């Protein structure tokens, strides 16, 4: 319990240390997401742009899905993203309607 005249002391070193740890964690997550994005972009670009010019009996074709999926996968991802976005907007609208 605090008595009259007592005050809270803030350990500045602990706060600065915690902020640095969080900053390093944010940087690590950002780096990981950047690497994943670059990998997906490189894979998809190679799959869509370069692979059609490679002979169909070449071994590299074993590592990629058929060309039909090159259009189907992004379209499905866009539809799913659009659905989640519409659901989120709908929930926000319902919540704001209840508060009013």
Textual characterization of the structure:
The protein is mostly helical and 100 residues long. The protein folds into two domains: 1-56; 65-100. It contains two helices and no strands. It has helices spanning 12-50, 69-99. The radius of gyration is 26 Å and the shape is flat. It starts with 11 loop residues before the first helix and ends with a helix. The model has no long low-confidence stretch (mean pLDDT 85).
Put the structure in a nutshell.
70% of the residues lie in helices and 0% in strands.
Helices and strands, with pairings:
Elements: H1 12-50, H2 69-99
Biggest beta sheet summary = none
Number of separate helices: 2
In total, the number of domains comes to 2
Mean of pLDDT: 85
Low-pLDDT runs? none
* Helix share, percent: over 70%
C-alpha geometry: flat
Beta-strand percentage? Answer: under 5%
Q: What Rg, in angstroms, do the CA atoms define?
A: 26 Å
Q: Given the helix and strand composition, which structural class is it? A: mainly alpha
Order of helices and strands: HH
How far is it from the N-terminal to the C-terminal residue, by CA? 41 Å
User: How many beta-strand segments?
Assistant: 0
Main location: endoplasmic reticulum
Membrane topology: Multi-pass membrane protein
Transmembrane segments: 29-50, 70-94
Pfam families: DPM2
């Amino acid at each position: 319990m605090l008595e009259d005249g007592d005050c809270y002391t803030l350990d500045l070193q602990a706060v600065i240390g915690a902020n640095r740890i969080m900053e390093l964690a944010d940087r690590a997550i950002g780096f990981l997401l950047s690497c994943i994005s670059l990998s997906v972009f490189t894979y998809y670009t190679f799959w869509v742009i370069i692979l059609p010019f490679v002979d169909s009996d070449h071994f590299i074709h074993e590592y990629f899905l058929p060309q039909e999926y090159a259009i189907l996968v992004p379209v499905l991802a866009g539809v799913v993203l659009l659905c989640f976005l519409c659901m989120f907007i709908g929930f926000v609208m319902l919540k704001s309607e209840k508060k009013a």
